[in-house]
UniProtKB/TrEMBL annotation:
It comes from the Eukaryota. GO terms for molecular function: signaling adaptor activity. It comes from Sapajus apella (Brown-capped capuchin). Substrate of protein kinase PTK6. May play a regulatory role in the acute-phase response in systemic inflammation and may modulate STAT3 activity. Its main location: cytoplasm. GO terms for cellular component: cytoplasm; plasma membrane. This is Signal-transducing adaptor protein 2. Residues 133-233 form the SH2 domain. The gene is STAP2. Transmembrane segments: none annotated. Residues 268-390 are annotated as: Disordered. Residues 302-311, 352-363 have a biased composition (Pro residues). Interacts with PTK6 and CSF1R. It is found in: Cytoplasm.
Length: 410
């Protein structure tokens, strides 16, 4: 059985090794390192790249030379003489120690670093003519590279913003390159220095004439690039001017600019930090209000008067007295609005003072017992039917008349 056809293998593209001005093995010791670490290092532009081996394409560390200050020879600790294999690179914010294999390698590294930083071939190093020729070629490449790019101290800010940056971040440098304020194809240089206890700010104009930049001073000086303009200011001030290298740190405190209503000045305000716990969201969905149960008009009762508080033996309460003035109402049956309305019962009709006389019929005559006179009823036992004083007098008078009539008949 014939085997299935397979597509031809395509060779993997090999990576191109990065090109450097100079490269070799280099041992590095940073301030945070306890001992030296060996890397394959290469210098390109103003950056030293570090690789784990000379076959790697991707660097593991890099070091920017924009904050360069000086190079010094380093004597190993515990040694009485310089073996010629140690040197120290002093930057603005740190010092890094290096160790190489030979004295020639140390001088080569120092020469190439000074060439790209100062844009000139050093003359105070122990170098051969071939080494000086190599550094002259690197100088030409570096000048051509810088002509196509702007230096790190070039910021697109205005005149006032440049002054504020130099004032707020003095540790980042005191020389800043910015676009020209007149809108021309030139640049401006802003510097800030201390003089007799006061800060002095100066602005210099740089004109663009063809492919060159001309510094407009008493004796105009022509430069091939903006980076050469920066080097002119640094070298002609004995390195008193330091290019502004902005440290891209992030702020930790939130702040904003607020205008003062009294004097009109702008102040920087930092709001107070919120307390622990999540803040209540005002934009979130609101909870619906609790549903109310409808009440009919018949079920609604008038408000009852508050019950008097029970006397407490332990605590004495003070009942506040209302301060509302007394209101005189024409209709006294109407109570003030602050108290509940209590309706008075209607008056019942009064009973008549004298009830109607009951009908009087003929009373039976008393019987004569044993032929004697009829027995009189004791007056003390006679009780009036109604306890009315006027009615008792009439009854007594009738009783007297009845007795006289009976006496005449007998």
């Amino acid at each position: 059985m014939a085997s299935a056809l397979r597509p031809p293998r395509v060779p993997k593209p090999k990576g191109v090794l990065p090109s450097h001005y100079y490269e070799s093995f280099l041992e590095k010791k940073a301030p945070c390192d306890r001992d030296y670490k060996k890397f394959w290092a290469g210098l390109q532009g103003l950056t030293i790249y570090f690789y784990n081996s000379n076959r790697d394409f991707q660097h593991v560390e890099k070091l920017n030379l924009g904050a360069f200050e000086k190079l010094t020879d380093e004597i190993p600790w515990g040694s009485s003489r310089d073996p010629g294999t140690h040197f120290c690179l002093v930057l603005r914010n740190q010092e890094i120690k290096f160790k190489v294999e030979t004295l020639e390698c140390r001088e080569m590294w120092k020469g190439f670093i000074l060439t790209v930083v100062e844009l000139r071939v050093p003359s105070n190093l122990i170098l051969l003519p071939g080494h000086l020729y190599m550094m002259a070629e690197v100088l030409a490449k570096e000048e051509a590279r810088r002509a196509l790019e702007t230096p790190s101290c070039f910021l697109k800010v205005s005149r006032l913003e440049a002054q504020l940056l130099l004032e707020r971040y003095p540790e980042c440098g005191n020389l800043l390159l910015r676009p020209s304020g007149d809108g021309a194809d030139g640049a401006s240089v802003t510097t800030r220095q201390m003089h007799n206890g006061t800060h002095v700010v100066r602005h210099y104009k740089v004109k663009r004439e063809g492919t060159k930049y001309v510094i407009d001073v008493e004796e105009p000086f022509s430069c091939t690039s903006l980076d050469a303009v920066v080097n002119y200011f640094v070298s002609h001030t004995k390195k008193a001017l330091v290019p502004f290298l902005f440290d891209e740190d992030y702020e930790k405190v939130l702040g904003y600019v607020e205008a003062d209503k009294e004097n009109g000045e702008c102040v920087w305000v930092a709001p107070s930090a919120p307390g622990p716990g999540p803040a209540p969201s005002t934009s979130g969905p609101k909870l619906p209000p609790p549903a109310s149960v409808p009440v009919s008009s018949q079920d609604k009762l008038p408000p009852l008067p508050p019950l008097p508080p029970l006397p407490d033996q332990e605590e004495n309460y003070v009942t506040p007295i209302g301060d509302t003035p007394a209101v005189d109402y024409e209709n006294q049956d109407v109570a003030p609005s602050s108290r509940p309305v209590i309706l008075k019962p209607k008056k019942l009709p009064k009973a008549p003072a004298k009830p109607p006389k009951p009908p009087t019929g003929p009373k039976p005559e008393p019987k004569i017992v044993n032929g004697g006179f009829p027995r009189k009823l004791p007056t003390s036992s006679a009780q009036p039917l109604f306890p009315t004083p006027g009615l008792a007098d009439v009854t007594a008078e009738l009783q007297k008349k009845l007795e006289k009539r009976r006496a005449l008949e007998h």
